[in-house]
Backbone:
């Protein structure tokens, strides 16, 4: 029972670290492009977050399998980047096909965001961190889930603020990207408060 | 010759990948905590940009259109592997401080973007000019941001190298926030804001960067 409790504790720790204290967007700068590009409205931001979480979790599992069952035993570590990006690209493609078949409304809602996830550096970053941290199968899954949850949290918060910003009197020079970056800076500062947890 | 010059020059300012096109935002924010890191990241990215640009431009007729983007990504990943292993062998300290962001050059939208929009359509010599221009533009932008953050955050420039200069006097209390993640967003936001201000004043035309942010990474 003690072992189980310990295992559970370490999994919660991995989840919280990936989601909050080492938030992918606000403290590791992974996935800035969708964060700036797809954060104009809350519903689309939320869909983007969900799609990314899904791809993150599934590709975390696949990457773990490819790395520890194929690359490491065969001594092909130098093929890591090529192999991971191919896994991610094909996984995004597969996800798109499955969602299209299983749930057409969801497919319609996510639309163009799905294929774009391939070039989201948060996914490749996550893939590269798995061998770096020596995560096992369960830890990789939880890590992917946590990273996705953190991504969704940050992008939805940002979208909420940008919706309000539509009605604010922003100086002309700061309109668009500059004000978004300044807000992100303040959010990053707020998230620093979690680092003591 | 004039075309080549134009291909080169546009990356420096008019179509600067960082300040105008807002491409490659992740490394721009993540590794500009010191001037050295910014410069190193810029050079690494430029090498990949040039190498993959040349190869992609040479093989453009051999690759069927449908598998164009996966092929580009594999070629880019190959060059990134070269950079990664060379950096680990020759400049281990810099490779250590850039960590994850060297492998992440694979998904830098600047590189795929140039391959897709330029190298896949133009002959090799023009691609080289374009890649060099974009590379220099990216490198100076990252070094510039790195200098600002390092001067305010540590009071130095190029710290940890033989070029290190103490810019601020004894009295200066470093703003540590500038070298932390929050500082990256604040610096880039402020720099873009200041640039917009002068652009607006110069042209009196409203520059709306919002659209370019939304589409930049997603046009590829």
Residues:
């Amino acid at each position: 029972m003690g072992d189980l409790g310990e295992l559970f504790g370490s999994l919660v720790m991995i989840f919280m670290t990936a989601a909050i204290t080492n938030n992918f967007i606000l403290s590791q700068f992974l996935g800035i492009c969708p964060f700036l590009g797809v954060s104009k409205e809350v519903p689309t931001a939320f869909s983007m977050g969900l799609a990314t979480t899904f791809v993150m979790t599934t590709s975390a599992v696949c990457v773990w399998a490819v790395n520890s069952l194929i690359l490491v035993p065969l001594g092909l570590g130098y093929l890591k980047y090529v192999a991971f990006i191919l896994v991610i690209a094909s996984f995004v493609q597969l996800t798109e096909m499955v969602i299209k078949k299983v749930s057409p409304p969801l497919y319609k809602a996510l639309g163009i965001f799905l294929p774009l996830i391939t070039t989201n550096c948060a996914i490749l970053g996550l893939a590269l961190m798995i061998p770096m941290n020596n995560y096992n199968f369960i830890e990789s899954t939880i890590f992917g889930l946590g990273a996705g949850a953190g991504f969704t949290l940050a992008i939805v918060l940002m979208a909420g603020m940008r919706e309000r910003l539509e009605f604010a009197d922003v100086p002309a020079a700061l309109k668009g990207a500059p004000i978004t970056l300044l807000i992100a800076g303040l959010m990053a500062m707020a998230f620093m408060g979690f680092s003591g947890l | 010759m004039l075309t080549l010059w134009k291909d080169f020059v546009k990356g420096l300012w008019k179509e600067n990948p960082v300040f105008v096109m807002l491409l490659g935002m992740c490394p721009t924010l993540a590794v500009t905590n010191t001037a050295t890191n910014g410069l190193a990241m810029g050079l690494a990215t430029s090498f990949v940009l040039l190498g993959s640009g040349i190869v992609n431009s040479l093989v453009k007729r051999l690759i069927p259109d449908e598998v164009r983007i996966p092929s580009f990504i594999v070629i880019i990943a190959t060059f990134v592997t070269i950079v990664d292993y060379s950096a680990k062998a020759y400049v281990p300290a810099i490779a250590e401080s850039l960590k994850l962001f060297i492998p992440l050059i694979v998904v830098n939208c600047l590189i795929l973007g140039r391959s897709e929009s330029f190298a896949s359509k133009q002959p090799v010599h023009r691609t080289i000019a374009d890649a060099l221009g974009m590379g220099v533009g990216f490198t100076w932008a990252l070094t510039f941001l790195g200098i600002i953050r390092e001067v305010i955050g540590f009071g130095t420039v190029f710290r940890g190298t033989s070029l290190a200069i103490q810019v601020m006097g004894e009295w200066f209390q470093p703003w540590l926030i500038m070298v932390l993640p929050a500082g990256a967003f604040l610096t880039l936001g402020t720099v873009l804001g200041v640039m917009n201000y002068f652009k607006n004043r110069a042209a009196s035309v409203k520059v709306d960067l919002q659209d370019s942010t939304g589409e930049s990474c997603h046009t590829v």
